[in-house]
Amino acid sequence: MKTTTMAGFHGLLNLSLSSSSVSIHKPKSFFYEKKLSLIKEEVEGPHFIRMEKLKQCWSSLLVLAVVVIGTGAVPITYLQSAVAKGAVCLDGSAPAYHFDKGFGSGVNNWIVHMEGGGWCTDVASCSARKNTMKGSSKFMNKDFGFSGILGGKQNTNPDFYNWNRIKVRYCDGSSFTGNVEAVNPANKLFFRGARVWRAVIDDLMAKGMKNAQNAILSGCSAGALAAILHCDTFRAILPPTARVKCVSDAGYFIHGTDISGGSYIQTYYSKVVALHGSAKSLPVSCTSKMKPELCFFPQNVVPSMRTPLFVINAAFDSWQIKNVLAPTAVDKRKEWKNCKLDLKKCTAAQLKTVQGFRDQMMRALSPVHSTPSRGLFLDSCHAHCQGGSAASWSGAKGPQVANSKISQAVGNWFYGRSAFQKIDCPSPICNPTCPAISTDE
């Protein structure tokens, strides 16, 4: 557990300001707010407060602050300098990230992890995000507990615990690909995801990433797709002597066939690309060969990628079962409503269709498992984003494939200790290590 002095504690309650960013260092918790409330009530109340009692209150508050700090809560940094460059969230607010500095042997190692959160396809759906953390940094939590691949404890994240670890908040709705200059005065929406990504990377370079010896660009869900789409650019920005690789956790969205026989997800992605002006931000190696919306599918981007990539995915990805295989728009009679939320509630016919989805996933992953430098951890869980918690990343009860935990597979692959391209057993109920769904961004 980290400790701090009283002077250090007072510093935590202040804003750390610079011309480029603002970091909020105020530790937050229920107990923290409650203690402040009690102190406020006593100070403003009609009764005289003895100095000793006030000292006791502050001492208790200090202890609580130390506990909060020890849990790994990382303060937010608002990148105010990006606003002038037009690199902003959907509502025009500054982009943000959480940065836990590296130490010891990890001081020159960096992992930049991009948050997930789906996409918005039209003015209505993007406007709905403006008053949430998915469209505005004004509504983001001021601190964030790091765990899983971003965890700061050696026993749960042995290969990356002391790296510089960054979580980039997601507020653009385009997997960090949007780049539209014009802003409609009626809706005042900014489609600037690609600018946000570059502004954050440039800021991190100035803060020391330019000296990186090892670096990973990773993400969850829509952020994991961004990790794939920006992977080669990330590699090109960093020193040529650095070891740079990318990790996609639940970002391998397939160009799949849905229950109607069509491809609703292609139509969906075409709307994202058109609205956000994403075409010019997607890999040219892909857009030079096919329609831009098809380059939102990793299976069309990965074949021409030059930077090593590790894919963590569930063969029965819960988000994709709901939105690629059986989207509500094509499930007119809601026959899949229960099945897609809980595979144990599927009929025999539906299970056969779900199994067919796994077959589609296997074919789409061929560019990954056909290349030795790439890694693959494909379990048969009904899950989405499995690397974000200590329990699923490295826990004793976390998912395993070929007797390996996700953390072991990724760590061994990154450092070249051993290759890892493993595919789980074929049934959605065959792996007893599969946990219950905990997140579905």
Structure characterization notes:
Helices cover about 30% and strands about 15% of the residues. The protein has about 450 residues and is an alpha/beta fold. It folds into 2 domains: about 5-70; about 75-425, Rossmann fold (3-Layer(aba) Sandwich). The strands form 2 sheets. Strands 1, 2, 3, 4, 5, 6, 7, 8, 9, 10, 11 and 14 form a 12-stranded mixed beta sheet that branches. Strands 12-13 form a two-stranded antiparallel ribbon. A hairpin with a 2-residue loop joins strand 12 and strand 13. InterPro entries: PAE/NOTUM. It comes from Brassica napus.
Strand content: 5-15%
What's the order of the H and E elements?
Answer: HEEHHEEEHEEHEHHEHHHEHHHEHEEHE
Q: Estimate the global geometry from the Cα principal axes.
A: globular
The CATH topology of the largest domain comes to Rossmann fold
Mind summarizing the main beta sheet? 12 strands, mixed
Question: What is the name of the CATH class of the largest domain?
Answer: Alpha Beta
Give the proportion of residues in helices.
Answer: 25-40%
Look at the structure and give the mean pLDDT: 88
Based on the coordinates given, report the CATH architecture of the largest domain: 3-Layer(aba) Sandwich
> Structural class, please?
alpha/beta
**Termini separation:** 31 Å
GO molecular function, one term: hydrolase activity
EC number: 3.1.1.-
GO biological process, one term: cell wall organization
InterPro entries: PAE/NOTUM (IPR004963)
